[in-house]
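Bench log. Compound arrived from synthesis this morning; before running ITC I wanted a structural hypothesis for how magnesium ion sits in the protein. Inputs:
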Amino acid sequence: MNKDIERVLYSVEDIQNAAKRIGNQLAEDYADKTPILLSVLKGAILWSVDVMREMDSYVELDFIDVSSYHGGVESAGEITLRTDLTTDVAGRDIIILEDIVDTGRTLKYMIELLHKRGAASVKVASLLDKKEGRVVDVAVDYVGFDVPKAFVVGYGLDYKELYRNLPYVGILKPKIYSEEDSATLNSQE
Ligand code: XMP
Ligand code: MG
């Protein structure tokens, strides 16, 4: 296990099972449609890959980068559209693939944007749902795991752009946060 991780919350196998369950469910629910899987950069890339390959049905793939974070552990209120998707969503069925829904602000922003552009339907499949953190009222239609209100990393989720490559989801050691001002993570022991 990575030396900066205190505890693994969801193992490789847990995540694989969740991707299988949700991928199969989506394929069934959208069997007569060709939805656009909208993967939210950068955190949802591993989740998107694992869910989509469990779907034996017609799907398209696109990406969006919407950020409410500025490198730390606290969610900022302001949403920035960094990279827009390239597909015309008018009349299309969209499945947003997210890594985690916390306050719900990012998700709400994307859902409103897609509806404004004329999407026929918008549903959400998130690896993690941090329900306790919710500030705005948004529903996650497909949930991998209900996650407690801790800052988690791995499997796409980062702390200062690190740990996205870990194949599991875990909690960082507190010392990683406390040392953040004195040194960069890369130069730590
Ligand atoms: P909101 O608050 O808009 O946030 O629902 C959603 C986005 O915030 C990020 N986020 C996290 N990232 N560990 C992370 O690495 C976390 O525990 C965490 N909580 C929220 C994430 O980018 C998500 O898309
Ligand atoms: Mg994200």
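What the model suggests: Residues 40, 43, 99 surround magnesium ion (ligand 2) (CB under 6 Å). DSSP finds four helices and nine strands in the chain.
ITC booked for Thursday regardless.
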